[in-house]
Each structure stands twice: as C-alpha cells, then as structure tokens.
Write a structure and sequence with these properties.
- Helix 6 links the parallel strand 5 and strand 6.
- Strands 3-1-2-4-5-6 form a 6-stranded mixed β-sheet. Strands 7-8-9 form a 3-stranded parallel β-sheet, with no helix packed on it.
- Helix 4 packs across helix 5.
- It is an alpha/beta fold and 284 residues long.
- It has one domain: Alpha-Beta Barrel (TIM Barrel).
Amino acid sequence: MSLKLAQSCNLCGRQCKSSICNPKSEIKVSSYTVHHGEEPMISGTRGSGAIFFTNCNMRCVYCQNYEISQNGHGNIKSKEELADIMLILQKKQCHNINLVSPTHFMPQILESIKIAIADGLKIPVVYNTNGYDSLELLKELDGMINIYMPDFKYSDNEMAKKYSGADNYVETAKAGIAEMLRQVGPRNLLVRHLVLPNRISGTFEVLDFLASIATDIRVSLMAQYSPQHKASQHKELNRKISALEYNETVEYLQNKGFENAYIQELISTDFYLPDFMSDEPFKM
C-alpha cells in the first residue's frame, strides 16, 4: 500500500488528511480473542480470530465499545507483533483472522499480513468495517482480503452526521460495498445493518440499495441495539427497538428476494422467523 495514502490519510470517507484516528501512525490493539459471537459463516464451530483495533473513524453516540473506539484504550503493537498475533489465532484453529475496525490502521496492517503470510498464515482474512472506507483504500486491498464484512448503518446522511459524526456516509458506504462486491463476489460479502429505533437507520432504503446491486449477497439484519454511551441524550434513541419495528424490516427483507440472510429472534413470541443462511463457515 502506498505510503502516500497513509501519510495523507485518505483512508476513509472523512478524507480529513490529518490522521485524527491514528495521529502517530501506530498500530494500537485493544484485544484479540477466539470469537464465537459473529454470524455462523464467520464464527463457524471453532471461532473467528478477532483482533479489535483501538479508535474509530466514526463517532456513534450509541457505541457499545466506546472505551475502545473513542477513548483509545489499547496497546501499541509493532507490525511483527501483530503478525505474531495472527499466527497465534491460527494455531488456536480459528476459521479466519477478523480485523475489527481496521480502516485507520490498514497500511500498517497490510504489512503485518504480508509478514504473517511469509511465516505461514493460511486462513482467510476478514475486513470487518463500519462501511466508512474510501474507494482509494479499498482498491489497494484488492487481492489481500478474502471476506468483506461492512456495516451499512444509515440511508440518510443527516442521520449519519447527527448520530455518528460522519459526512457523506451514504455515498461512501454505497461505493465501498459495490467495490467489495466487485472484488470478492456475493458469497464473500456479508453486509450488516443494525436496526435503530424510530426508523433512524433507514432500513428499507438500505435494503433497496443492496437488492439493487445483488440479491445473492449475504445480509445480516441485526436486532440487538440498546442505548449505550451517549444515547440517553437523544430521546429517540433511548430505548431498544420493538418487535414491531424489527419484524417489519424482516418482512421487507424477505419481500426483496434476498437469498442469503441472517435475522435474529426477539423476546416477542408472537412473531419469529429463523435465519435462512447456511451455517457453514467460509473456506478457502
């Protein structure tokens, strides 16, 4: 990856050129673990090798990991140390290396991946992102990433700006997801969407876009929202979603003709649909 891209910090949709997410150009890792909480195609039976990176290029007011993403809790790692972490997770028989919130560290992470491959890394690499990645960055990743797992958080830029501090989020996410699809195809693209209360996330429009580019991409419609961090300061966000709110999005998803999707069970017992995606983990 071009050092110019890293130094000018055109890595995400923010295009700030000031490296506010990673001012010292260092890799900072919060933790790494064998993670069983991802979608079945990622976690499989032996878990995903998740590496959680510190800081984030978005500022979601409801972030459940704000101590990591916004308060900067973590430890600096060299490229060689990060490569060693990947190999440790492979030795633990993880299905993949899951890079969680990696955007602002990707020039350094790519160097670590190359070191790890030279030392025997063979399992797939998952790019687990909030969807706020620049096209310039994604094109540099072509051929290095096996599975893309982006969020598509909002269909309205005003909502993205208000609740996540992200300008031009919708255009950035759409262009990025289309590029990811071009690189790895529908089988290796899993788009996540967290349903927010009061239709703030614009789920119908998100699903409209995804269906317009491919109905055979993998979609995860998530229901686990709870008011965290600063969400209590926003009345419209200060509650969990209702069964009605989630179920209407599930029905809409099914009517759009998606072939591979995950949905979740709510506490409500009057309406439940199981997921209809294979639980087989991705294999090279």
